[in-house]
Amino acid sequence: MKTLCLALLMIVCAVAANAQQRRLKIYISADMEGVVGVVSNEQLGPQGFEYARFREFMTQEVNAAIQGAIAGGATEIVISDSHGNGQNLLIEKLPSNVMVVRSWPRPLGMMQGIDETFAGAIFIGYHTATTNLEGVRAHTLSSARLADVKLKGVSVSEAGINAAIAGHFNVPIIMVSGDDAVVKETTALLGNIEGAVVKWASGFHSARTMTPDASYELIRQKAQRAVTRVREFKPYKLLAPIELDVRFKNYRPSEVLSYLSIVERTDAHSIRFVGKDIVEVSKFLTFINTYELGLEP
Ligand SMILES: [Zn+2]
Predict the structure, then answer these.
(1) How far, in Å, is the centroid of ligand 1 from the Cα of 21?
(2) How far apart are the CA of 246 and the centre of ligand 1, in A?
(3) pLDDT tens, position by position, 24-71
(4) Alpha carbon of 84 to ligand 1 centroid (Å)
(5) Per-residue pLDDT tens for 128-176?
(6) CA 10–ligand 1 middle distance (angstroms)
(7) Which of 30, 215, 253, 281 could be disulfide-bonded to 275 (CB atoms 3.0-4.6 Å)?
(8) What values do phi and psi take at 77, rounded to 5?
(9) What's the CA gap between 213 and 74, in Å, rounded?
């Protein structure tokens, strides 16, 4: 009887260990400029005449990535709604076994919710950096206010900043979707990750686009392949300390931020901040893009 109990216990332990090993968490950061068909403001916010429909397309692209990821072996998924007001995804249209991060501000910005338990991260609906000559709605963090964001002296895209945040937690980026320019820009930085091109940019406010159904199918296939390949990818890590340079389109942000002793004004429109790691840099970026005295409540 005693030996039987011991044998049973060992089987239970082995099964539990196996289940633990098979746990595979995937993080999805969802932006909107790179969603199928998006070309202008009309799709990107509550004031646009097409926004309601394009929230649906954004949600379905995320759903396609979820389905692909699960088919590829994902067991747990967290999605961050990372565009505009952070309240775009129609959460009732997502499956019951995922979690969604909503609204701002949040310390890790477009990567809030990521930690070292994730096996890989996917970017859906992404766009190129403000310094790129190509791409629909090319901008970095704020199209109205920032003209350049550099990490360690190199201009970066949102995908670059967010890959470094994931890398801080040892999580690799495994896939990106958006226009041809963002897939090109992101694979140039991160290597052979999966890329889903759902439209081809012909200007800041113009593209030749697939239809939604075609983009969902493509994203599903790419996400499945990315998760199947998850162990091939390396985290994108920046060595500390991390020098951040921000160039504002306007004059006064750099003037006023330079009153802080942690900030150096490097020219009329630019400031420098040195963070001990990318998390500190992310909090600083969140701060400068959020803070205003009239914030209430
Ligand atoms: Zn964005």
Answers:
(1) 34
(2) 16
(3) 999 999 999 999 999 999 999 999 999 999 999 999 999 999 999 999
(4) 8
(5) 999 999 999 999 999 889 999 999 999 999 999 999 999 999 999 999 9
(6) 50
(7) 281
(8) -135, 135
(9) 23
CA of 272 to the centre of ligand 1 (A): 22
C-alpha 73 to ligand 1 mean position (Å): 28
- Tokens 């052979």 belong to which residue? 192
> Ligand 1 centroid vs 78 CA: distance in angstroms?
18
* 35 CA distance to ligand 1 middle (Å): 11
